Protein 1
Amino acid sequence: MKARATETQRKTRIQMENEERILDAALEEFSAHGFRGATIDRIAEHAGMSKPNLLYYFRRKQDMYEALIARLLETWLEPLKELDASGDPLPELQSYIRRKLEMARDFPRESRLFANEILQGAPRIKRLLESELKPLVDEKVEVLRGWMKDGQINPVDARHLIFSIWSTTQHYADFDTQVQVILGPDRGSEGRFEDAARYLETLFLDGLRPQTSKRDTPRVRTP
Amino acid sequence: MKARATETQRKTRIQMENEERILDAALEEFSAHGFRGATIDRIAEHAGMSKPNLLYYFRRKQDMYEALIARLLETWLEPLKELDASGDPLPELQSYIRRKLEMARDFPRESRLFANEILQGAPRIKRLLESELKPLVDEKVEVLRGWMKDGQINPVDARHLIFSIWSTTQHYADFDTQVQVILGPDRGSEGRFEDAARYLETLFLDGLRPQTSKRDTPRVRTP
DNA sequence: GAAAATATTGACTGTTTGATAAAACTCTAG
DNA sequence: CTAGAGTTTTATCAAACAGTCAATATTTTC
């Protein structure tokens, strides 16, 4: 029987293992070269199997891509989902930023896959963005607006605020090559992450304008 | 005689016109699909000429790409070059941010070309980044540090500050598709630009933490 | 341990792609 | 107006590519 028939059926041990290996290799290729730039041959080679064998599990190139995207979006939206309306605004935002930054550190290939897709006009996931991402953002925008109304955070355009969190954090995954050129090899990747986290915290909380008067909330400093 | 011989020679009217059309078409394709994803056929079609004719002007695919990159980097670094050590820190930064945002608005294809290249590990311009971008950043980092020492801007990691300016501004070009999905069609592209500019100004100057005490510098507000 | 189900392979197909050669055409300077 | 430089096209190629198929090998199930 065909492995990928339409009926739902239990997956074999070998099936699960191989699909895993294939998707990992596919992620590597797609995130580095985009959909068109990636080739089945290279994915197969990277997964350590023959092309026909790979195509036995994923009949078309696009099937791999779609499997990756579906899986990715879940993970991707999670941090935003956790933004809690009943929490303290500033800590909530701080931990959202930190979570996004952690994702850029821990899942750079996923971030680049996503970036590639959007960069190319999101031809394959525009619908998903409209049906999944948009409503979630709309919901969280209301949360942010509530906080602004209460004076708990500065009144700004909530959607652009979200954009700036996305862009600053994902930058460390998507533009990693450039970041490394600029920062040089001195600072290890762990140190880089902490520098970035610290910087973003200051930026999003206080901006660059120096304070002459004392703050109501004291800053946390490592001792 | 061959059009692209190594010797420097005057370019024909036809040569100039065609190279222009080709590079424009190439920019369109490369920025949308990356180097590997773009095809000479499509570039030729988009430029309105036959493939062999195109290859008469640019003998290899890579030649077009390199011509575009060379041209791009000049434009790209200009705003940062203009950051003036002797100017007022906050207005200097504000106008740097605004210039970068204008570039994202006016040259989105160039921005995406660059993003694509970095995303794929910058295989073709890593050297250029090291020889051109890195020294420039190093120089401007010193400028920023000077300002921080004087207490004219908050003390933060200067390199990460630059990253955050790059990422937040270029986001509007590179992730335009996503931005449009989130913002919806209500707000025209001109309005979007102004919203983004206003938001980024607040973010970089003051951050999100609300001020209970009065500021030394009054905020500019539209009346 | 044999039958059935699943997995793997090699050989292949039609197409797209980057690139070339040479013939044919067009423009322009004198 | 013509000779030669400059431009364009037709025809072509080899390699890379997505995807198929039938035959073979391996696992799982009973």
Protein 2
Amino acid sequence: MVRWEPDSRGRLAQAAMELYGERGFDQTTVADIAQRAGLTERTFFRHFSDKREVLFSGAHALQELLVNAVVNAPDSAAPLEAVSLSLEAAGNLFNARRDFSVQRQRIIEGSAELQERELIKLSSLAAALANALRQRGVADPTAGLTGEVAIALFKISFERWVSSSEPSDLAEVLRDSLEQLRVVTATT
Amino acid sequence: MVRWEPDSRGRLAQAAMELYGERGFDQTTVADIAQRAGLTERTFFRHFSDKREVLFSGAHALQELLVNAVVNAPDSAAPLEAVSLSLEAAGNLFNARRDFSVQRQRIIEGSAELQERELIKLSSLAAALANALRQRGVADPTAGLTGEVAIALFKISFERWVSSSEPSDLAEVLRDSLEQLRVVTATT
DNA sequence: ATAGTGATGACAGTAACTGACATGAAAGAA
DNA sequence: TTCTTTCATGTCAGTTACTGTCATCACTAT
């Protein structure tokens, strides 16, 4: 006889996504989530450090992907080229989960608290990219600046990709945004 | 006979800054702040929408300064030039309050919650800059991208300026960071 | 059998916020 | 003056996110 149903964490995550989607993040209490998952509030906080973190559990994997791509970029690649390759790799990952990404983004856009969490995760990604560049021998302030610019590119491209009516290729949008950046920064 | 001492808001802000500096943000309760200001918790929340907002009341003025500078930039200025002028104007404002800025930044660095709030304020600035550029006839995605890049420049430069041992000129650091950006994005 | 182990429940406590109502000096109208 | 209205503050009860602590009990290894 099983004492508890399996995959508490997964059930909590699913219940949370459903409720955030149905009523919005602010109108959902942790007690609601736990109840739908057949668990208690206390157990929710054993699996997620806070109410927002449910939506950001993938951040760690994304960071690893980005950092690895930068570290493994060819030696010949300039800093901005290295992070661009990295972003494209991430782009392909998102392409496979567009529906989920759109749903998640809609939820985040509905809550200032969630936007704040999203921004600090992106900021952490920028710092990780900068570190990866330093491993490649890129000096500061170039490393830090390139990390921040990469995240700026990602933000803009992701917005365009998510809000475009007909499904497009995120990697392609990223390449286009990079092209725009080069135009904007070109000295005339 | 005066019923209340004057400038409740100012007293609350000062008490909060003192306590955040003495014990850190997390170790300070709103009750502590209200008590030091000779007021009640409820009154704190009448003046500040939350515990973090005390540190960000200047954001509105900064946004106005930046937006005005972009709108009033010469017609001949390219998008990136317009926001650069804008950032330099902000830089001069910060130069005059370096000690305060350093103290405030130390407090923010000590709390993830405060970093999140800082990031969403910067994000709001990026959006405001993008809007100002659209008023100048700059089309998307250039406007949005330039706004984000401007904030990236500001973040990197501000960090360098705050952490440099001998006081430097923020506007100068900003110009240097822009130069770095041009190098990084230049096609080889 | 016996002794852990580890995920969960139960429960009390803190602190950030919110809503509703009361108070009384100050400012203006009569 | 006297009456009325305004408005910043106090008071208090309530909600909710989160934490610390201890109990429970199927499962596992010895």
